[in-house]
Amino acid sequence: MTTTYDAARAEAFAGKMVGHLNGAAVALMTSLGHRTGLFDALRDQPPLTSPQLAAAAGLSERYVREWLGAMTVGGVVEHDPAVNTFTLPAEHAAVLARGASPTNLAASMQWVGVLGAAEDEVAAAFRHGRGVPYSAYRRFHEVMAEESDQTTVAALEEHIVPLVPGLAARLRAGIDVLDVGCGVGRALARLAELFPASRFVGYDASVEAVEAARQNAWQRELRNVRYEARDAATMCDRAAFNLITAFDAIHDQADPAAVLRNVAAALRPGGVFLMQDIRACIHVGGNHDLPLGPFVYTVSCMHCMSVSLAGGGAGLGAAWGKELALEMLAAAGFGDVRVEQLPHDVMNLYYVAAPG
């Protein structure tokens, strides 16, 4: 079958790809602005020249000048050519500067650099199919912790814990809690602060992440939380916990089915599994309208799917979908599953599951 070449369509598509290229460039420079504190230095300030901004941020003026060029033509920073000064509008600062709002999109832009740094390894994996290990992703746990602070940690008390009726009261009275795939432990540490009568433990396969979690808990003088470097697919806990959580972790596992079975076995009668995971449909056709659809598939290909395959695993990927998640929860022994979506979190669904 032959098709007729449509020059206008080709030109329109080329324009779309140029837009993607410019968007990726702005994202990378936005990440740099976050990491170097430039957005914070510009926030709530009068118009600044490049030397003034460099001095305020303690950075090289030449680099700051070039960064301002990208931010100006990218529509992030406003420029007054008459006096050559730069301003970060309050509306832009609200989504880019630290502490300006609950959601800092500049922090999320760091994924461009984190994932891009592993491009050579991922390209090779396209040929050998074995995946790419966590060790290839520099700063992964650091950036993931910033994401967790915004979507999970900040929402625990007001939005996430209330998803389970009566859970806050049980936590105040004192129960045993496990977090699977705890990473550097920010969510568990926050719960330990909020509910000092309860006992918390976090499992993660990454020794590096567990060490960071332990250090954080020690600095915060938390005595009711501990962390262990353990693969949840091989854990042997039986009826040991009243609550088990997994925040954006199950789809990364090498053997997610085994993890879910072990979670069900580790819950005591009346226990609850609270799983946060990516909002998606199992079929790509159902994901066209996802607010961050291209990002979900990109981070999946560049990390989530690949690290699972590197461990000899299933390689579910971030877009494993609500349908498959419900199927796997049922197969693991969860007979009562409720799915919720929270208004502050466009990326995830929340599964409240009980065995039986």
Automatic annotation (TrEMBL):
It is an enzyme of class 2 (transferase). GO terms for molecular function: demethylrebeccamycin--D-glucose O-methyltransferase activity. InterPro entries: Methyltranfer_dom, SAM-binding_MTase, SAM-dependent_MTases_sf, WH-like_DNA-bd_sf, WH_DNA-bd_sf, WHD_Rv2258c. It comes from Urbifossiella limnaea. Keywords: Methyltransferase, Transferase. GO terms for biological process: methylation. Its EC number is 2.1.1.164. Residues 24-98 form the S-adenosylmethionine-dependent methyltransferase Rv2258c-like winged HTH domain. Residues 173-279 form the Methyltransferase domain. This is Demethylrebeccamycin-D-glucose O-methyltransferase. It comes from the Bacteria. PANTHER family: METHYLTRANSFERASE TYPE 11, S-ADENOSYLMETHIONINE-DEPENDENT METHYLTRANSFERASE RV2258C.
